[in-house]
Amino acid sequence: MSEPVTVPSTRSTSAAARRGDSLADVLERVLDKGIVIAGDIRVDLLDIELLTIRIRLLISSADKAQELGMAWWRDDPFFTGGIAGDGDGQSEGSEVAAGDVLQQLLDGTEQLAQRVARLEEGNGSRTGDAHGPRGADDADETD
Amino acid sequence: MGWYLYGVTSTAGPSRPPSGLRGIDDADVRFHREGDLVLIVSSMDRTLEDLQGADPGDALAAVRRHDEVLTQLAVAGPVLPVRFGTVLSDRSAADELLADRRGELQSALAAVTGADEWVVQVDAIETADTASDTAEGLPPGHAFFARKRSEARGRADARVRASATADALDQRLRPLARASQPLASREPETVARAAYLVDRDDQDRFLGATSACDGATVTVQGPLPPYRFASGGNA
């Protein structure tokens, strides 16, 4: 048996879809399948239902954010110091603990606020710009 | 200190795990042999309540490690996966398990020896947008609805085509597999998903049979440890 591979046989599925699947796949088979050895006081079994719920909650917080395109901080060169997230970085994303994601969100939000502040400063000095703030737009409507 | 149980193998496989194979909590993976059966275990300091109450990220790491240990061992020998979260209280509990359930474990292991699990998924292909032709010359409002109708028809057609492909594929794959099991779909475009237990001798033919499929996207995953075909009396 060789190393496990995913073989797309007619057309490759998108990397994003496959990445999402692989973690879901592991959970599906490891938590739900396999021979059950129980019924003995000297064998302990985890409450899988409870664990599954907790893990799925964790996954959905990190994974859903990416699925819904809310993981903009990973790809935006502005937030990654000029290095857009590569495939490897993203594949780890689904395993990132919720705390890390929250931290990234907070970092990203702060940087975004700074960026907005800078943009607003720029617009303030360019009155009459058609793409300026609403006040400037209204003044230009009569053109 | 408990023994975390990953799975069961036999003396037909390697006599010891690959050196450096680490299990949950980085503990060394060990073989506990009794007769022709071998338990795949590692020592565990934590109680199950600890693992249960741990950070879910920690529990997730344990789940992945469980899978990695079985995946690595399955390369070299037969492996009967045990469900995640099984801990034997000590060595005598391990001996007791092997004594009490030897027959059941032997037959469950024999059922998967020499074979791997493969998961085959068939997805409908979203058709290229040909709707612009049908919308040609219509007023914008009509064109919009004509396009929507045409898109919906396209999706329905794609599903019908993919379902036919999936049925034909399943017919071809089943004779090449020891057993098969339908799995739930997770994405709306998935028309069929199934696990197959495939003899290593038939692996090339099985994979060959998945390659000639028109009208659908076929994704094959494997080889995997035979989780879905590991059944005992109470599975």
Care to describe what's here?
- Chain A is built from six helices and two strands; from the N terminus they run βαβααααα.
- With 143 residues, chain A is mostly helical.
- In chain A, helix 1 packs antiparallel against helix 2 (48-67).
- Chain A is rod-shaped and about 70 Å long.
- Chain A starts with a strand and ends with a helix.
- Residues 8-21, 84-96 and 127-143 of chain A have low confidence and may be disordered.
- Chain B is an alpha+beta fold.
- In chain B, 40% of the residues lie in helices and 25% in strands.
- Chain B contains seven helices and nine strands.
- Chain B has helices at 48-53, 56-76, 91-100, 102-112, 131-134, 140-173, 203-211, and strands at residues 2-10, 30-34, 37-44, 80-81, 86-88, 115-123, 179-182, 190-199, 217-224.
- In chain B, strands 1, 2, 3, 4 and 5 form a five-stranded antiparallel beta sheet that branches. Chain B has a four-stranded antiparallel beta sheet with strand order 7-8-6-9.
- In chain B, strand 7 and strand 8 (190-199) form a beta hairpin.
- The longest helix of chain B has 34 residues, at 140-173.
- The radius of gyration of chain B is 24 Å and the shape is elongated.
- The interface between A and B is large, with 48 and 68 residues.
- Strand 2 of chain A pairs antiparallel with strand 5 of chain B, so a sheet runs across the interface.
| Structural class by sheet pairing and helices of chain B | alpha+beta
Can you tell me the overall shape of chain B? elongated
Number of strands of chain B: 9
Indicate the mean pLDDT of chain A.
Answer: 61
Q: What's the N-to-C terminus distance of chain B?
A: 27 Å
- Identify low-pLDDT runs of chain A: 8-21, 84-96, 127-143
Short recap of the structure:
The complex is a heterodimer of chains A (143) and B (235). With 143 residues, chain A is mainly alpha-helical.
